[in-house]
Amino acid sequence: MQLILTPELLMEAYRQGLFPMAYNSGSPYIHWICPEMRGQLSITDIHIPRRLLETVKKAPFEIRINADFEAVLRGCAEPTPKRPETWINASIFKVFCDLHERGHAHSVECWEDDKLVGGIYGLAIGGAFFGESMFSRMRDASKIALLHMVARLWKGGFTLLDTQFVNEHLKQFGAYELPHDEYKKYLEDAVKAEGDFLLSGLSQEKIMDNYLAMRESN
After folding, report:
1. Which end of the chain has fewer surrounding CB within 10 Å, N or C?
2. Could you tell me the fold of the domain covering 7-217?
3. Contact, 156 vs 32, CB < 8 A?
């Protein structure tokens, strides 16, 4: 029997180390994935390539938080030459929109002239953040969104950034893998912590400045 994908079911699955995927956007079925090796990124020590760091400092895009969550999901679900199929089907799309309405799912967005040109979204549970997908319509837009997300996670007290898998794109940022049992230990502690993604009253520019200053002082 195919379970109905609800916000409560999805959040409990993530707490247990599972996450949902579909074979393609048109599939009505959800498959629960539990990799033996789990992809991770360091929040404090993510590797930032020199050229990208200089680009971030120039602030080529306006960074917005949760301004158009659904548009970010649609961008992530769009087929591309490198990715003709997507794992985001209608059920996954809907449940993440529901989670966003409840304050659990968030997006970091790059805008230029009031046009969304890239972004990333994910799920926050306690002090754990599960990065889901990102997209880019201009050079470096998704990478810049990722770094701004990491800065926000650092400032908000998050301790775990899950990428599910490690691919060539994430390797440039120092992505690494943990065996499932080790990942579960970190996960259990992280979801009990208190992370603050919204950081009310702080500008994203200030958050990034603080993050870069922290890295330069270490």
Report:
1. N
2. Aminopeptidase (3.40.630)
3. no
Place of tokens 């992370």: 195
pTM over the 0.90 mark? yes
Spatial contact of 110 and 63, defined as CB atoms under 8 Å apart: yes
Per-residue pLDDT for 111 more than 50?
Answer: yes
Tokens representing 26 are: 């048109």
| Per-residue model confidence (pLDDT) at position 208 | 98
pLDDT, tens digit, 9 for 90 and up, residues 153-174? 999 999 999 999 999 989 999 9
DSSP the chain: -PPP--HHHHHHHHHTT-EEE-SSTT----EEE--SEEEEE-SSS----HHHHHHHHH--SEEEESSSHHHHHHHHHS--SS-SS-S--HHHHHHHHHHHHTT-EEEEEEEETTEEEEEEEEEEETTEEEEEEEEESSTTHHHHHHHHHHHHHHHTT--EEEEES--HHHHTTT-EEEEHHHHHHHHHHHHHS---SS-TT--HHHHHHHHHHHHHH-
Measured N-to-C along each axis, helices 204-217 and 50-58 cross at an angle, to the nearest 10 degrees, of 140
What's the pLDDT tens digit per position in 40-52? 999 999 999 999 9
